[in-house]
Amino acid sequence: MNAAWLPLTAIAASLLAAVIIFTLPEDARRLRTNINLLAAVIKITLVALMVRRVVQGDEAIFSFQIVGSIDFVLRADALGVMFAGLSSVLWLCTTVYAIGYLEGTANRKRFFGFFSLCVASTLGIALAGNLFTFLIFYEMLTLSTYPLVVHSGTDKALKAGRVYLRYTLTAGVVLLFGVVLLYSFTSEHSFASERGLGDYLGDHRTLLTFIFALLVGGFAVKAAMVPLHGWLPRAMVAPAPVSALLHAVAVVKAGAFGILRIIYDLYGIELSVELGVTTALAVAACITIIYGSLRAIAQQELKPRLAFSTISQVSYIVLGVSLFGPFGTIGALAHLLHQGLMKVTLFFCAGIYAEELGIHRIDEMNGAGKRMPLTSLAFTIGALGMIGLPPVAGFITKWYLGIGAIQAEMYWVVAVLVASSTLNAIYFLPIVHRLWFRVGPAHGHGTWPNEQRLGRLETHGWLLWPTVFTAVISLAAGLLAGLPFSPLDWATRVAVGEYLQ
Amino acid sequence: MITFFDGVEVGLALCMVTAALFCLFDRHLLRACCFFVGFALCMALAWLILEAPWLAGVEGLIGALLTAPCLFYALGSFSHAAKLPPYDHIREPLSRGVIRTLLALAWCLMVGATVRFIFPEMVYSPTEHPLLLAGIVMIATAMGAFAWHRHLVRRLLAFNVMGSGVFLLLAGLAGTNAQGQALITVGLVVAWLGSLLGALVIRRLYQLEGQIALSGESALKEKGK
Amino acid sequence: MTWRFGLVESTFTPLLTSHWALAAALCLPLLFGVLAAILPPRRMWPVALACPPILVAGLYLLTDTLHAGLLRWQWEFFGVSVALRLNGLSILLLLLTQWMGAAAALYTPGLLRISEPERFARWLWPLMGVVTSALSLAWLATDLLTLYIALEMMGLAAVAMLLLSGKAAALQAGMRYLLLTLVGSLAYLLGVALIVGYWGRLDLAGLAQVMEPGPVAWMAAALMGAGLALKAALFPLHGWLSPVHASAWTPVSALHAGLVVKASLFVLLQLWSLLLPDAFWAPRLIAWMGMLAIIWGGLIAWRAESLKTLVASSTVAQLGYLMVVFPLLIGPDTSPLARALAWEGFWLQLMGHALAKAAMFMSAGNLILATGETTLKGLAGTSRRLPLSLLVFGVASVTLMGLPPSAGFTAKWLLLHAMVVSQQWLAVAALLVGTLLTAAYIFRFFRYSFMETAPRQRYQPLAPGMDMIALCLALAAFVLGLLAHFPLELLQGGSA
């Protein structure tokens, strides 16, 4: 039985939510909230159904012909469902968070409309069954995130939006060129092809390498790999939920996911190794990891520090992909999920600090742990995970990546991992130290830069609960990694599938 | 008989070209328009000679009775209030005019050269088809005038003369069979409608802005702001 | 190429009902236009009542064409034979014309009600009818005479429509347009004269058989090409275009930039593929001009101060995309695959652009009407008060940028594919650079509109439906991109 409706309705859920939100009046706050949450829950249910199908060994496929031999294909395979699951769970969290965060600000209709559109594109990226479909959603993502980046409408935001577009649209054009080239010469762009592109190796070796460079170059911009990362720190002007979504699932991950798809499902891992492109990619990833960490240390404000940390962390995924061998793959895939969970937690916390206490700079964070224990606990979990300390999820990833590197006999990668973890510790531990062990302004005396109300909870529930939730999941993903349906388990399933092909 | 007929044709062609030249290059606008009426009557005669009485009728009706009043209306001859200045005083820099005229001439030489392919015998006796020749000359001069003049009424005149030249050429090349007549009739109607529209615009532009010529691109842009 | 344009004999004789449908499609717009001039509609519903018969006639013709593949009509008036044909391409363009005409007509009452009632407002209706009828005729005509009639009706009516706003700037621009279009039609007529003089016939199908390349064909092609390029505002003959749109009424601009300009291009392509089937340099010349058009039009739009100039200049650039395809459609040594792809891409781009440009002009018109500001700076901060108009503008601009999921993207994909297959790297580069330039000028406007610091102005509320019509057009371009398969099958079908 082929459930074509499943992937389609999953995308339609958020798309429809966007359309409805756009047609609602600006002040229909309650209705908008309900629709948002309803759509998010429906989406999670649908993705869960898709997961069940994949477990049963049955992929839901939806396709129709666009033109000639080009089809629009949505295919819920293991890898796609993995990313879809991440995006739908985090959508729910960020939506709840955003509802609380944007309480009482202007232009919320526009914000939530494009937010839903952005998530619909992410889901489309996850489920795209061929490169053409992927491209459709990838560009949709670019367009739908622009209004979110410039949401505040200040000069700085508009400038950031311009930089963002300059990077991503150029990348989109490069990508389009690469895809057209590939399709013109090989008539191949499906992610489900059995043979991969191996047949063309003999005749078109240089061309294949060139196309690989174009495609990966196009994706690397969104994945913020050095030197194509310039837009990411600037895009930090966006509201905190946007930053969280951008960094955890939507934009940055879309780029990394694209690279995954190219290497595993389009070229095939053997062909990529054969072409020698993986080594180059591994080097680029390592440079990005170290560079991102070094720049993060230099940042004195919280959000930019997190941004550079993202640049560094996302490249772990790329690094894992470019290590030939199942362990590297497992590490990469698991990190896709883990990093999303941990990063979203960190950004949520940063948003809460900024909103509640007006904290933007790191040296203002002294003693915030006492004032906001739950938030700070969540932050600590996220930070420890980023460093890669057990038992948080980040540890699992680094462990697998290390094993993968050793198996692939790329020992310098291990050195990079160690160095990066040290650097991570250098820029995260001081924050944790400040949170818990420094004495801050006295409780309730309003000496934080811009302290807000004090309710029963340390902050608004809409903000707090998603944060706690993602922190708990990050912890659980590390502690309970051995259970079925944990990120690690699913990553292993995907990796086994890739290598048995 | 044949020579006599040719003589009539040559004479008519000469008359027509003269009328066209006066109409194009007389700076006294009212006079130029009167020349245009004469020119249109010559055209009607030419159609008679070419054995196309239908066209002669249409030309007489449209050219002399409909288009000419449009032009007079544009000049403001029917109203007492806002007459256009009787003379066209706009002087163009010589270089611009020369370049434009050369372009127009080169263009028409090409047309003339192509006509040769259709009438190979014209190589030996260029005066075989005097009306055809008149048509080419009229197109060339009108084209030059159209490019050179800036006064809108004069450009409209130039367009009309050019149209007549094209019709003559068409008749000379294709003969005055049903197809040719149909094309020319449509062309005449279009030319009249164009002139009517043009006359209305000229009139209104003059009333609104006191303009009798199109301002340059840059001036227009500044206005837009 | 002749079969692609349906210039072949048809074995089917059209049914009686098809005759009526044809008559309705060609004459009803005129009739209703005149009717509306006598009794100008103040609300949308009279227009909404008038549109269905025309649209139904179009749909009926569509089903007929789907059955027969090619329909031909032939009549003889006073010894002049006139023939019309309906193949996949012409029915597509006919439907596009009818639906866009209907959209423009539905948009008009609201516009006229809000803006001050003008002296000449009632003249808009018959002129709109003439333009729609003439366009329909232009897609169907198969001989030079009918084409000439259709082009001239269309051109003159278009000039008159553009003049209607009656401002001095509009009159200036309109006068320039009038003079140029008249001269352009004379150039066309001169070309016809050469063809009739040499081959003695006017019907395209017959000409295709007797035509042989030579100086006469070249000269005729050059003359007609120059005339039509002038009417189609192909670079470098585009100078008249943006001033004309700067002060024209919105539905007029929508129809003009969307369809009228395209009709001349359609005729140009049709005639050239007939006259110059194997020319090497002429289509390349057009293509180079097209590349320059993409760059130049993009830069002009980028520098534009007023929103209308931006939208109008983008037409120049978008026509460049179509020009770049010429060497793939006309000329020797193009592989059948590349030609088929280019053929599909060309028409898809044309249709997508027509819809999107109409939507864009309407939304721009809405923005300008609501705020009373015409410059980009003056329109700063509109995203807050006029989100729907801005959204329509955004949706339409996605098609113009050629980003998915729009007709512009699918067309660009097809064109790029064709160009890569035939290794025209320069054209590929032009298309890609064009995408970025388009994005640059589109987002320049969006940057202003997202400004929160802009001063608050008073806004005039729009009439109901004005935004929705534009939105429907813009979404139609999306749907066309995703379901491109169906129209393109029509294009390739017919009697091959």
From TrEMBL, chain A:
Keyword Transmembrane helix in record: yes
Domain NADH:quinone oxidoreductase/Mrp antiporter transmembrane: 128-421
Keywords: Cell membrane, Membrane, Transmembrane, Transmembrane helix
Keyword Transcription regulation assigned: no
Family stated for the protein in its record: Belongs to the CPA3 antiporters (TC 2.A.63) subunit D family.
Name the UniProt record assigns to this protein: Monovalent cation/H+ antiporter subunit D family protein
Segments traversing the membrane: 6-25, 37-55, 78-99, 111-138, 164-186, 207-232, 244-263, 275-294, 314-337, 374-397, 409-429, 462-483
Any one GO CC term of the record: plasma membrane
Organism of origin: Vreelandella nanhaiensis
Subcellular location per the Swiss-Prot or TrEMBL entry: Cell membrane; Membrane
InterPro entries: CPA3_Na-H_Antiporter_D (IPR050586), ND/Mrp_TM (IPR001750)
Membrane disposition: Multi-pass membrane protein
TrEMBL record, chain C:
GO CC entries: plasma membrane
Domain of life of the native organism: Bacteria
Membrane topology: Multi-pass membrane protein
GO biological process terms on file: ATP synthesis coupled electron transport
GO molecular function per UniProt: NADH dehydrogenase (ubiquinone) activity
Family indicated by similarity: Belongs to the CPA3 antiporters (TC 2.A.63) subunit D family.
Organism: Vreelandella nanhaiensis
Keyword annotations: Cell membrane, Membrane, Transmembrane, Transmembrane helix, Ubiquinone
Residue stretches spanning the membrane: 20-38, 45-62, 82-108, 120-141, 147-165, 177-199, 219-241, 253-275, 281-302, 309-330, 350-369, 390-413, 425-446, 467-488
NADH:quinone oxidoreductase/Mrp antiporter transmembrane domain: residues covered: 141-438
A Pfam family reported for this protein in Swiss-Prot or TrEMBL: Proton_antipo_M
Main location: membrane
Protein name as annotated: NADH-ubiquinone oxidoreductase
InterPro entries for this protein: CPA3_Na-H_Antiporter_D (IPR050586), NADH_UbQ_OxRdtase (IPR003918), ND/Mrp_TM (IPR001750)
